[in-house]
Amino acid sequence: MNARAGIEAEWEPAAEKAKERKLWRKIVGQRYLQMMALLGVAWMIVFNYIPMYGVIIAFKEFDIIHSISSAPWVGLDHFKEFLEDDSLGYVIKNTLGMSILKLVIGFPLPILFALLLNEIRSIVFKKWIQTISYLPHFLSWVILGGILATWLADVGIVNKVLMALQLIDQPITYLAEPKYFWSIVVTSDIWKEIGWSAIIYLAAISSVSPELYEAATIDGAGRMQKMWNITLPSIKGTISILFILAVSGILNSNFDQILVLRNSLNETSSNVIDVYVYNVGLAESRYSYAAAVGLIKNVIALALLLGANSITKRLNNTSLF
Amino acid sequence: MYSFKRQSASSAIFEMFNSLLMLIVCFVTLYPIWYVIVNAFNDGADAMRGGIYWWPRQFSLDSFQAVFRSEGIMTAMGVTVAKTLIGTPVHVFFTAMVAYAFSRKELVGRKLYMFIGTVTMFFGGGLIPYYLLIRDLHLLDNFLVYILPAAFSFFDLIIFLSFFREIPPGLEEAAKIDGANDFKIFYKVIIPVSMPVVATIALFHGVYQWNDYFTGMIFINDTNLQPIQTYLYRVVAQSSSNQMLASMPSGMAVTVTSQSLKLATMVVTTAPIVFVYPFLQKYFVKGFMIGSIKE
Amino acid sequence: MSKARRLMTSMVALTVVFTMALSLAGCSGGKSETNGGSTAATSGSTDAKNTSSTGGGEAKPNPDEPGWKSDNAPITFDWYMNFSWFNKKWGGDATAEYVTKKTGVSINFIVPAGNENEKLNTMIASGKLPDFITLGWSEEAVKKMIEGKLVLPLNELADQYDPYFFKVADPAKLGWYTQPDGNIYGYPNASSSPEDYKKYGSNFTSNQTFEVRKDMYEAIGSPDMSTPEGFLNALKLAKEKFPEVNGQPLIPLGLHEFSETGNYSLEGYLQNFLAIPQQKDGKLYDRRLDPEYITWLKTFRKANEMGLLSKDIFIDKRPQMEEKIAQGRYFAMLYQRSDFDAQNMSLYQKDPNSAYMAINGPANSKKDAPTLSGPGISGWTLTLISKDVKDKKRAIEFLTYLISEEGNKDLFLGEKGVTYDNIDGKDQFLPDVVKLLNTDRTAFDQKYGASYTYWMLMDTNMNLQWAPPGVDPQKQMADWTKGKSISMSEFDNLDPPSTSEEGIAGSKNARNWGKLLPKLLLAKSDAEFDEMWNNYVEDRNKNKQDKIDAYRQKAYEENIKKLEALNK
Asked: Which family does the entry's similarity section mention (chain A) (predicted)?
């Protein structure tokens, strides 16, 4: 027994050493690859990890004239304050409500748009549509908010059109009614970003090998069938990745957009986490509080990312990692 | 089994509806832009009365003249053009390079590297430690602050990854047999077949560089290094500065820019980047490179 | 096992990268944390630099001789303006070039094109500020910069380099801004001391006016609007007589924008019109609980019930309001007059009768005259000198120049013969210059740069002697406020710091008020109003209102002490 144990004990380091040597040889063999990867890692260490110690202000009472290290610890006080805030309920409801609507409606539409655009035969027409549809992305929300406020007013163009079509018989001040707020946000977001979001899908579609289409044509497949059976599966990977990222961003809102559209009357349906953090934390220079809420948000976002990742992995074998 | 005729008929109907739909999308997205433009070309005081929907009521170039009259606007435009032209290739090349390395399954430590990257998407130290870092790197009031901290993004890396995965492995193997090293494979083989995603990220990052005012605001004090977005922000800020209502001396009010001037500023500051897209478009419309090179 | 090994190797690789990165970050990378300590170190080194640059000036400076005259070698100061809308650069105009020629000083203005506080707080946290800093006196950053020893005491600078400073500085303003440590760190602009009130008080104006559209008001018979009944009745008459303006519904009453924390028009503004005191027998008085004030809030509620409040006023932000003012869509407004100067001017130019004019607004039941917010000793902004300033001597000398009568005149009128001259025995702008001033302010700023283009240290009282006469429609409004404007300095800066216990509770109460206020106006009945009101007061009291009040009372008493010292 003892002898065997001794042999094993001697044997194992040797095997380990051999493995180690093999690994080193492997690393040396892929030195170019390692170098390329480590440059990226180095960048992340410098620009992301070195300043990351700032996270600890979430557990401290940080004041700009004292350094982070000398700020007093307050433990979980900021987290408690956030979780006990009486507006938390509707703030979360609004955040999730709008994000889920954006996910359910706003996520698939650019895909559909890209697929349909891809079916346009005339190259010139296609190019024009592409260029035009991405233009609204460049309007900044501050200015767009002003335009929307004019259009959605009781005497605005939206009411004029709807009255002319006899869809409504009384002008509605849309921004004054909490019940319209979510739809205004989601619709205007889709409208502004549909062309822009479609770009990445168009890029994915253009990477699909034309041979696949040729083969399908020979098999007698129609356009719809090709779209459904070739194009869509080919861009499945891109869709999954973007979906995973979108899911993890569910607690984020478009701050600029909400800020320009919200007002004293629609407050109950327009207050979202980001606006809340701005008003309670940043506007009052309470960096610690803002950091604590940010930390909660990010932990949840990471969990959502990992969750969505494992689900898509199981469903269609694509994942981030 | 479909008959040929039936298929082409349904195809024609599809084509018609599709084109119609696209025209509607075009109209809906183009109209607001048109609205911005006609209002920018209208006399400012008159535009304030509202109701300009299709055509300027009192055509005037005053707003545009006022924009170009702003001090230092040409320098700022130069800074923005420079940071976009330099920052974009650096970002695309660097991020793509790292992404390519991360995409190779045999990379030792790959899982760890990915983990390191994923964390960066969610956890940051906030503005103040970041500012101290930038200061210690001597990037304050330095043009490189537009380039180096923006040279990489893990988010974009993920997008690159998803495209690199679709590249048939045969391509790399062929190059390897020819004795090329991994870096050479990356820029000689991978980049050329990945033009659609390269163009996409270039566009995303180019637009980011163009629109980013935050870096200039926080890290740059030298007026000659301020980007063009500064101007847009300023005309917009005038209308939202409600601070100090009571203590501002009477008569010393912030003169607020007319809506026309704001719109004209927006047109001037965004038009150049808008026109980039048509040039990148060829990569989206005819990608097909993977297939063609494979032969 | 092998997995762990592989992890180990990559960890090793990582450490290598990490050290690489650290060395890349430079020697200071590790130190970035010890912010407090390094601050002291850097200030030491700049001290050394400063003395060397001003070295040689060993001879005691002459207190009767302006220091800025002694040296006009070119120097450029970085000057931080905490106002994102400030868009002038130094130079390119007659005034700045004249000043540079005279003093040798050029300025590189640093203006954040974004959230001002974010920029300023970041700079404060980094421990290094530009040479000069100008910001609103009530900003919390003022306290932070002093507390963090990031700014230099002006009195010490003056003692050491330029005693002439004390000749031109107003002792009252210095006294008001003296900190507990006996030092003065900032000098205000647009500030008016009690002495100034005695001298110029009858000319002092306020921005707070109640305006009506002249033609409409006269068409309904110029009724009295100072009582709740008269007010409601006038709004009603106006709405009946002018249901529409150019095809769009009339908005009977306009107000400032509703914000997260309330509405300017419906708080201090209205309380000033009602002449509600801010203190009684040395104790701060809660104006919000005053019955007169509540009566008027209920009047506004009644107005809404009668359909006289448009929804627009609850949702519009400043750009929309400006658009509607330009269209003349409001009948009456409680709106700061300088905020719609441009719009009113364009209405006036089209038809003087369609412009807005100031009339007597809401008053209390005893018909007391309003006590509007006039200029105060706090002024508008405060200018401070950074501890990292390039050249201490030149900085204090330039500051002295700017607050002196000569400096004020140069910056207000520009260069003699170029922008102004002695006309009819009075120094005033040349006709062309006035014309441009009244027609195109932007062009004026760029060409001449006079008349408050560079307002950092303007003395608004001193400048009265050179100012061109006012013109209608602004003049009518400004004149209306004369004799009704009072100083409220003793109530300045009472709020607790935002990160303190009282500050956190205070801003929460403020946000609750911001949510309550529109609901009060929209309440269906006075009973509903009362119920909401009582709930609010109860919540407020539960949330440390007593502590907040105690803090404010203490700060108020300190202010009083300071003011009394000034009056001696």
From this structure: Belongs to the binding-protein-dependent transport system permease family.
pLDDT band at residue C12, thresholds of 50, 70 and 90? Answer: low
Q: Does the pLDDT at position C29 exceed 50?
A: no
Question: Mean per-residue pLDDT for B4-13?
Answer: 67
Inter-chain touch A284–C34, beta carbons under 8 Å: no
Query: Which positions ≥6 away from C395 have C-beta within 8 Å?
Result: C77, C131, C132, C157, C385, C389
- Counting every residue, how long is chain C? 568
C320 within 8 A of C441, measured Cβ to Cβ: no
Q: How many residues are given for chain B?
A: 295
Residue C384, φ and ψ in degrees, nearest 5 = -125, 160
User: CB of A97 within 8 A of CB of A84?
Assistant: no
What is residue B85's predicted lDDT score, i.e. its pLDDT?
A: 95
What is the pTM assigned to this prediction? 0.86
CATH of A76-316, one of 1.10.260.40, 2.40.440.10, 3.30.1120.10, 1.10.3720.10: 1.10.3720.10
8-state DSSP, A102: I
Contacts of C241 (CB under 8 A, 6+ apart): C216, C219, C220
Contacts of B116 in chain A (CB under 8 A): 41, 44-45, 49
A9's tokens: 């004990």
Q: How many Å apart are CA C210 and CA B141, to the nearest integer?
A: 47
Say whether C31 and B136 touch across the interface (CB within 8 A): yes
Tokens of B254: 């912030």
Query: Which residues of C are less than 8 Å from B132 in CB distance?
Result: 32, 35, 125-126
CB contact at 8 A, C9 and A28: no
Min Cα separation B208/chain A (Å): 11
CB A189 within 8 A of CB A102: yes
Spatial distance between the Cα atoms of B151 and B95, rounded to a whole number of angstroms: 7
Could you read off the pLDDT of C240-258 as tens digits, one per residue? 999 999 888 999 999 999 9
Q: What is the ipTM of this complex?
A: 0.87
pLDDT for position C446: 87
Residue A145: the pLDDT is: 87
Contact C311, C251 (CB under 8 A): no
Residues 66-95 of B with CB under 8 A from A: 94-95
Cα separation, A308 vs A87, whole angstroms? 29
Domain boundaries defined on chain C: 67-192+379-476, 207-373, 494-567
Mean pLDDT of the residues in chain C? 87
Contact C186, C382 (CB under 8 A): yes
Longest dimension (CA), chain B: 83
Neighbours of B22 (CB within 10 A): 22
Q: Are C456 and C381 contacting, i.e. CB atoms less than 8 angstroms apart?
A: yes
Q: Which of B122, B270, B289 to mutate to test the interface with A (most CBs of A within 10 A)?
A: B122
Q: Residues 6 or more apart from C470 whose CB is under 8 A from it? A: C478
pLDDT at C210: 97
Could you give the C-alpha distances from A12 to A26, A161, B158, C12, in angstroms and in order?
21, 82, 40, 22
**CATH code assigned to C67-192+379-476:** 3.40.190.10
Chains in contact with B, where contact requires at least 3 CB pairs less than 8 Å apart: A, C
Residue type, C464: L
State whether residue B68 sits within 8 Å of chain C by CB.
Answer: no
CB crowding C388-419: b at 16 or more within 10 Å, else e: bbbbbbbbbbbbbbbbbeebbbbbbbbbeebb
Pick the CATH number of C207-373 from 3.40.190.10, 3.60.21.10, 2.160.10.10, 3.90.550.10: 3.40.190.10
C212 vs C218: CA distance, rounded Å: 10
Q: How many domains does chain B have?
A: 1
